Amino acid sequence: MSGLLSTPGGDPVTSSELQPVLDENDALRLLLTGELDLEGRLADASNTTLRAVVSLDGVTRRCVYKPIRGERPLWDFPDGTLASREVAAFLVSRASGWDLVPPTVLRDGPLGPGACQLWIDQPEHAEPLVGFVPAGSLPPRWFRVAAARDDDGTPYALAHADDPRLARLAVLDAVLNNADRKGCHVLYGPDDRIYGVDHGVCFHVENKLRTVLWGWSRHPLPPDAREMLTRLAEQLAGPLGEALGEHLTTAEVAATARRVARLLGTNRFPTPSNEWPAIPWPPI
User: Fold this and answer.
1) Which residue of 53, 76, 177, 254 lies most exposed, with the fewest beta carbons within 10 A?
2) How far apart are CA 184 and CA 8, in angstroms?
3) Counted domains in the chain
4) 96 and 143 inside one domain
5) Domain of 144?
């Protein structure tokens, strides 16, 4: 994550590459009950998004804190809060067993209640998985998603890697009905995993899928997706559905179950709609 406007002096947290990876339950406990100290605001976020340090019992990590009071109202998401949708996305990710969303909780903070998510530090030399490439030089095993030109008229292609980690994220986005999967919302973790972040505009009852990961459109789902989706369907009828009910409307939870059933029925990645822009802006 980047785009920090400013930070106070000092650096209370060493690089996450030098710190042991937290167990998920320990991370959730830290995020939920640790002391939050604000460091700065992310300049490129449309809603108030703050970087903070969270500390508990000698354990210190960075996190992203998104207070509800800093959310801008969205006409097409009138119910609930963006923060609640962030937490709901984590709950679905955790239930999937794929763990593609960093640990996220809803808690009180310096600016009131909001979503608090573990910060992901990306390795300095991580190769991008999504981006604009020269139109005639698509890397091997990359999918072309859309055509583009720069200010000088030079042709480029919006593209992404044919990477199984990205494919999993595309399946999760189809379940979440993610309306804003930009390239910058795909992060490399120091453990060679990828993570998806910024899920405030997910779970709409209408099809709102907007993503840069359309390369697998109409392709069969990954071999392990059916087992994951079956597990989600079972949990949505039980504990996961109940947990989501604390953050989403009843209709939104039911729509999530229908999307899972549809994916199980087709066993294929969804296709872009012709009724609205299928790629978010900006895409990267």
Assistant:
1) 76
2) 25
3) 2
4) no
5) 130-266
